[in-house]
Amino acid sequence: MILTVTLNTALDLTYRVPALTPHASHRVTQVIERPGGKGLNVARVLAALGYETVATGFAGGATGATLRDLLAEHSTVRDELVGTAGPTRRTVAVVDTASGDTTQLNEPGPTVTAAEWAAFRTRFTALLDGARAVALCGSLPPGIHVGAYAELVRLARTAGVPVLLDTSGEPLRRGIAARPDLVKPNADELAQLTGAREPHRATRDARRRGARAVVSSLGPEGLLAATPEGVWRAAPPAAVRGNPTGAGDSAVAGLLSGLVDDSPWPDRLTRAVALSAATVLSPVAGEFDATAYEELLTRVKVTAESGTG
Amino acid sequence: MILTVTLNTALDLTYRVPALTPHASHRVTQVIERPGGKGLNVARVLAALGYETVATGFAGGATGATLRDLLAEHSTVRDELVGTAGPTRRTVAVVDTASGDTTQLNEPGPTVTAAEWAAFRTRFTALLDGARAVALCGSLPPGIHVGAYAELVRLARTAGVPVLLDTSGEPLRRGIAARPDLVKPNADELAQLTGAREPHRATRDARRRGARAVVSSLGPEGLLAATPEGVWRAAPPAAVRGNPTGAGDSAVAGLLSGLVDDSPWPDRLTRAVALSAATVLSPVAGEFDATAYEELLTRVKVTAESGTG
Hints:
Chain A is α/β, with parallel strands linked by helices. The first copy, chain A, contains ten helices and 15 strands.
């Protein structure tokens, strides 16, 4: 099975309003509730692709219970979330119906206690036994030390399980130094990590910091991968229009599926770009259009570049 | 006991953010969860004043369960809410920390089924036996017919229980025609009902539509009451500064407390204005400052006006 970790899960609410006006009162015309957090998004995509998938991390309180109910109802992901005394945070995405523009409000989430973190590490270590790959995704909740991902990367490496890290800021900086197999930063995360804006330079710099491979997201232009086997660019056939929510998480799912299938890098990148574009095209945020995915698989363009990452 | 009805209860969330900017992402710095809906606010104030208070209406789903937990935890209000299959709505008040300005997002609430409405009427009728007064408060949830408050007013009158109606729009128009003992509109609700903006004229017009007494809110300037015993204005000693959330509900609680104590109108209005001002002065939205209330009781100014309403 593939294991995904979401330490800062969220109950994601999407509110549609005609247009958000500060300091006014709004009737919400549509409410959508979804289990949120990057690792849960990755897990749902993998499960929809037919992979046996397990999700761990934290959930607590009434919001956590709702999140777990929704996860069970809408996916085949096995729920191995660890309970917290504090309630799972909510995120609210307020979408203006006319323009599609989104205003985001993110609750901070519960403070995880030392005992809860210890319980999680125990569960994580047990789940590594049987995992073919593990993805560590998203931000750290309050109470968890900034080197937490570095700790989890080391546990995965000790267990011999390939580990992908998708986070930002100091947790990424520390995590990368623990030598994960793969990191997947976007342009902002990469620039923050390396100080470099030029994608090739920044991607290679990120690799030198300890990751075996770096797959950088170039947004609508696709992915740039620096790996021990070579450097590739992968691009969708044309710019796709739609809602980019969850596109990065779908790319992570594509990379993991290729990893566990032991497919060559160009194929992994093709899957990642196709899934990402099929997610942008889906009318439901964070879901992917399965027909578009199959079709895009044949049309993603992968180009080898000079150098070895 | 005093019975309050909240057909459209809500789990009220207050989010503090530095400043709300449309189409940006915000970290919420503080989250407060409270049981919401006008009738529940009235009930909490009455319970805090020492009155035996029962709350009915609807609650459902995970949000409804949280609302009921919070009500039990923070008040002595007896919970006689009727379950719905659909989940209780949330309201989100986004408060800009610097200015205190609030942006409101209100979910529509679950559609109440015919069977749920029938179950509520049965519960309501049973609770009227033993009620000394009943308050019908707030908007109607989806699925409930616009004459619902008129129906409840008639049930209360048949049971001989004095009934206060605090709603707006067509439900107020229909409800007032069923001859409630008291309505408490604000200036906008009054203007919408009567077409008149001048408070004396609009208040008298509202009385002629069927209410035994009309107490109109003049915002920070206090209340104007048109009753069979006379017409009064009641004003706080000075304009109070603070958060007006819940001030109108506290005024309703003051009027009900005076009604069940059979106190004369000037005393009822004094209580209503003092509680309303003490609510504005409280640092916590919807709570009242008990010390300020006691002090304000001696300083509210009530003036008899000519005429009999």
